[in-house]
Amino acid sequence: MKSRNTNDRAGFTLVELLVVISIILLLAILAGAVFTGRMSDRMRSAARISQSAFLGAKDRALHAKDLRGIRLTRDQTDPTLANGFVYLQPLPMQTYPGGSFKLDRLDQNPNDNVPDSPDIYIVRGNNPQPPPATALSVDWYDISKFFPPNPKIRIPSNSGQWYTFTMSNPKYPFGPTNQVLQLLTPFAQQPTDPLYMYPNSNTAFPASVTTFTSCDIQLGNELLPFHQPISLPSGIVIDLKYCSTNVQTLAGIGTGSLPLVDIMFSPRGGVTGYLTALGQIHFFLRDLKDAADSTSNPLAVGPPGSANADVTKGERMILTVFPQSGLVQVFEFDPGDLVDNNTGAAVPDGLADNPFNFAQQVKTAGR
User: Fold this and answer.
1) Which domains does the chain have, with CATH numbers?
2) Tell me: the pLDDT tens digits for 78-87?
3) What is the pTM of this model?
């Protein structure tokens, strides 16, 4: 028997190595294609879920013959991002009988005893009284957490005019023992109005209107019972920072506050509230990794590698709600100026860059 040559070693031939490398490259290409396909499916799924959620709120308003809506749920780690929705219904209106408050003129310096305005802007509620006191009082401080953006009060209740109010005047600090609301427009009253008669105007605009009255306060929204939250697919979010300006304002972007992002539909199918007059409502869907990357500015138009370059890697789409009709559609994101492949320089198209351009021109996705 011949002994085995210790110099002989098993190994791959060059051809075998090339075959193995080719197979590895092919698998890598296929894996990338599958990953890209899944990303596309995820974005398309996110668009469909978002569109269905808004249309579902609209449909519920039509069937209930009452206001219904949808709230964007903020990401717990980054409140400028939204990752789902919940359905809403309005809270019951709060009514306060005559004698619960008084109406005052705006006075920025109460110490001088001279009101700064002949018009009535201040609604001063009676502070809560401990039992067994019988004086009428209000609970505005307790229910203020339910106030919607731009809250409204109707004076008197049932038949009066609606006024938008605020609680942010530093001269009238709102609190549990100072339940003061400031109207944004003056209270519509005449000196001869028997409901709101104040002392003789010859006394140089008295500080207070002595007659008490009633009011209704419109509260915000609560979750619609027996409905589960709706989540976007993992890795896809609505980036509130790059939504349309009306959405950014609603979400408190840049203000440090975190108001509820509620969109309400009327029984006629359109969006209700102050958003109605602010034009189309655009939501920006994008990949979570891009949204979390501070350098990924979808509005950047600089050439690749520049400080103002758009380094976005994932897909992005626009979901638009048309307030008047309640129509909800999905559109492609318009990246603005193109980039020359040879020079890397931006190629102006003669139009102002507008990410919602396709939505405003009603060029639906896929067309």
Assistant:
1) 14-89+230-360 (3.55.40.10), 94-219 (no CATH)
2) 999 999 999 9
3) 0.71
